[in-house]
Design brief:
Layout lengths: L13 E2 L12 H6 L7 H4 L10 H4 L10 E4 L7 E4 L2 E2 L1 H5 L4 H4 L3 E6 L8 E4 H18 L7 E5 L5 H12 L2 E4 L6 H11 L3 E5 L1 E4 L2 E4 L1 H13 L6 E5 L17 E3 H6 L11 E2 L3 E6 L9 E5 L1 H13 L8 E4 L6 H13 L3 E5 L10 H9 L3 E4 L1 H10 L13 E4 L6 H11 L5 E4 L34 E4 L14 E5 L9 E2 L3 H8 L17 E9 L5 E6 L4 E3 L2 E3 L1 H8 L5 E11 L3 E10 L7 H14 L8 E4 L13 H8 L14 H13 L2
Parallel strand pairs: 1-28, 5-18, 7-8, 7-9, 8-15, 9-12, 12-13, 17-18, 17-19, 19-20, 20-21, 30-31
Antiparallel strand pairs: 2-3, 4-14, 5-6, 10-11, 15-16, 16-24, 22-23, 23-25, 25-26, 27-28, 29-30
């Protein structure tokens, strides 16, 4: 094919080659104890019952004042939920549980160093600590409802305490992932208009106590250059009474939070009765390109949705021990470590460090020690645990009743390992699809009702009505075997309200493409566009193919990168796979496939050929990779995600850019050298 003949095809023509997987059914024991077993829930939450059906979630909370309008569409598509209602998120996550659960653990904290042991914070202790720090924020920092505070904190108990203290006052918190740089923190300080930064002196990562305070100094200095002054920096000490950072304190600006709290001993702060539609927090998308987007999440709608999905999808009961192995710096941690579980009186586990430190058995020992029975993690972590310790789970005496996957599509081969080895063939699995912007799960099975299918997120959640649209806005019917843009037809309470300070970008990015009438106040005219490619199976289950931007156009055939990665993982030697597009003057693009092997296997040309042949067998010759690169390790962010941008830059002989956020930046140079020596 000549170069001029290469044309872009529509999302509706994304090639879908994989067959449907077998269904797995939850055990009768699981169903017998499940929070939701009534299949009529889908009727109650049918499209024609939106928005009033979501009252069922909102009624899980305690309200100071009931709402008069379930959904206000007057500023479409900036939806307002439960208007007229008054509520406080901190009260709902802490205070209301004291009568029944004050002596029950709210948070189990697991420090990374083995010798430090576990910390168990009861709801009563959480109540005391949240109140005392709320007093610091109010009386020392002068913060009131509507003010913004930037948090740049690692996974220590003081992080949820700080969040809940902010929520108690109606102060809007913006947590920056602890592994992000001072520059990234500064950008979020400036955008949110924060005058107070709350951080920590140090935290552990892979056995090293890292100086975190240095990022605060960088952030404050850079923010000042961009016109935003930070008046106070509050620093939580990893070891109270001891300063663990080498970076000096700045006189007059920096204060130890631990010392400030001592002066508030016994102080109680009444929760502020906040309007339901008042912002609770900002969560910035990391954004590979362009300015990070400050997703503004509401108080009442968000909390109702996370409480409902925690109860019915995660199947959390107050007597359960629930561990979400995410970082609170991401939306998963906000929704499903802090707000959702605590709203329904869960005992939630926080782990400071790396799940594979000091060895591949660490996660399963934690599960055994704390008697964890609900486990929630990302496919990235599952692949890592499978890679370095595929037989480790069977060594430990734990039993999960329920497991969740989150963050990206999970390949069927990895799913089966998760089910058979981690879940020991007994746990119900919910694979979930959602986003920072959506607040909570959009597609998932209800584990007490719907069967599981490897690699498929499941149908739309009750009250969530997905649809697949092509470029022209035409609906791709269920079972069509074609992929397109997955969109949501209706509003839901967990969805973000807008992009902080940029309504136009909010509308343009998420709603404009398929809007039927920009002047309409009818939510039916404003489908939400997620930006992900997906295919809907004949049974109504959705399989997510990844970002539309990740689709590779090979000679006019659009291939989803996730499908190629899944095909590679069929090979028993493969632990991780990452596909990136490479420019080709004739084909337009072609895939490069990066592979990390399981322990005990060696790289060879024969193995490269085997993997490439497997991809062709599973998908077709159109998916043949230009090159299979077997690497020692993938360039992983400190949150555990493969940084495909870096791999793409290497394959295309471009600039790899900033790699300081990587957990293993040294691997980039090794892969570059391998690429250079290949002559490709």
């Amino acid at each position: 094919m000549a170069e001029k003949e290469v044309v872009e095809t529509s999302e509706a023509q994304i090639a879908v080659h994989w067959g449907e997987e077998d269904l797995y059914y939850p055990s009768t024991e699981f169903v017998a104890q499940a929070n939701m077993t009534d299949a009529k829930v889908y009727e109650r939450f049918a499209l024609e019952n939106v928005p009033n059906c979501f009252k069922e979630y909102a009624d899980l909370l305690d309200w100071y004042e009931y709402w008069h309008t379930t959904l206000d569409t007057s500023d479409a598509p900036c939806w307002k939920w439960f208007v007229g209602g008054k509520i406080n998120a901190s009260y709902n996550c802490v205070d209301r549980h004291l009568a029944k659960y004050k002596n029950k653990a709210a948070i189990h904290f697991v420090p990374e160093p083995l010798e430090e042991g576990y910390q168990h914070i009861t709801f009563q202790e959480l109540y005391v600590r949240v109140n005392e720090f709320a007093a610091v924020l109010r009386d020392v920092c002068g913060l009131t409802a509507g003010d913004r505070v930037t948090l740049h904190m690692p996974m220590i108990p003081e992080l949820p305490i700080t969040m809940l203290a902010c929520a108690r006052l109606g102060v809007i918190h913006s947590q920056v992932f602890g592994g992000f740089s001072g520059r990234a923190c500064a950008d979020r300080i400036v955008d949110s208009g924060s005058h107070v930064l709350i951080t920590a002196d140090a935290y552990y990562r892979s056995g090293t106590l890292l100086d975190h305070k240095q990022n605060a100094d960088i952030a404050v200095d850079l923010a000042a250059k961009d016109g935003q002054t930070v008046d106070k920096v509050l620093i939580w000490q990893r070891y109270p009474g001891k300063y663990s950072a080498k970076t000096p304190m700045v006189d007059g600006r920096d204060h130890f939070a631990n010392d400030l709290v001592k002066d508030q001993y016994g102080v109680r702060v009444d929760p502020v009765k906040m309007p339901a539609e008042a912002p609770l927090f900002l969560m910035y998308t990391s954004g590979t390109t362009g300015k990070p987007k400050g997703c503004q999440h509401s108080t009442g709608g968000y909390l109702a949705y996370t409480a409902g999905t925690s109860k019915y999808v995660q199947d959390i009961h107050p007597e359960d021990v629930y561990w979400c192995m995410a970082d609170i710096g991401w939306i998963t941690g906000h929704s499903y470590i802090v707000y959702g579980p605590l709203a329904i009186a869960a005992s939630t586990v926080m782990y400071e460090g790396v799940p594979t430190y000091p060895d591949a058995g660490r996660s399963w020992r934690i599960a055994q020690d704390l008697d964890v029975n609900i486990f929630h993690t990302a496919p990235t972590a599952i692949r890592a645990l499978r890679k370095i310790g595929p037989d480790e789970p069977k060594k430990y005496n734990y039993q999960f009743k329920h497991m969740t996957t989150v963050g990206e599509p999970i390949e069927p081969e990895v799913w089966r390992w998760y089910y058979n080895e981690v879940g020991k063939g007994k746990a119900a699995i919910v694979d979930t699809w959602w986003q920072t912007e959506t607040g909570g799960f959009l597609c998932s099975t209800l584990p007490g009702i719907k069967p599981m299918k490897p690699g498929s997120a499941g149908p739309g959640m009750p009250g969530i009505h997905p649809i697949i649209l092509d470029d022209e806005g035409q609906t791709l019917p269920q079972g069509a075997g074609k992929a397109g843009n997955i969109c949501i037809q209706n509003p839901w309470p967990g969805a973000f309200q807008t992009i902080w300070g940029d309504r136009d970008r909010f509308v343009e990015t998420y709603y404009a493409r398929y809007c039927k009438d920009p002047n309409s106040k009818d939510w039916r005219d404003w489908p939400y566009m997620a930006g992900d490619a997906a295919v809907e199976a004949p049974d109504g289950y959705f399989r997510i193919l990844g970002r539309i931007d990740d689709v590779i156009n090979v000679s006019g055939h659009r291939l989803g990168t996730k499908e190629i990665e899944s095909a590679a993982l069929v090979c028993e030697e493969v632990a991780e796979a990452a596909v990136v597009p490479v420019n080709h003057e004739i084909k337009g693009k072609e895939p490069d496939l990066y592979i990390a092997l399981k322990p005990g296997f060696q790289a060879s040309e024969a193995l490269e050929k085997k993997i490439n042949d497997t991809v062709c067998e599973e998908i077709g010759k159109i998916a043949k990779c230009r090159k299979v690169w077997i690497v020692k390790d993938m360039p992983n962010t400190r949150s555990g995600n493969i940084m495909r941008r870096v791999l793409g830059a290497i394959s295309n002989k471009g600039d790899v850019g900033d790699v300081t956020t990587l957990a293993n930046p040294e691997i980039v140079e090794e892969i570059k050298q391998m690429s250079d020596e290949s002559g490709l």
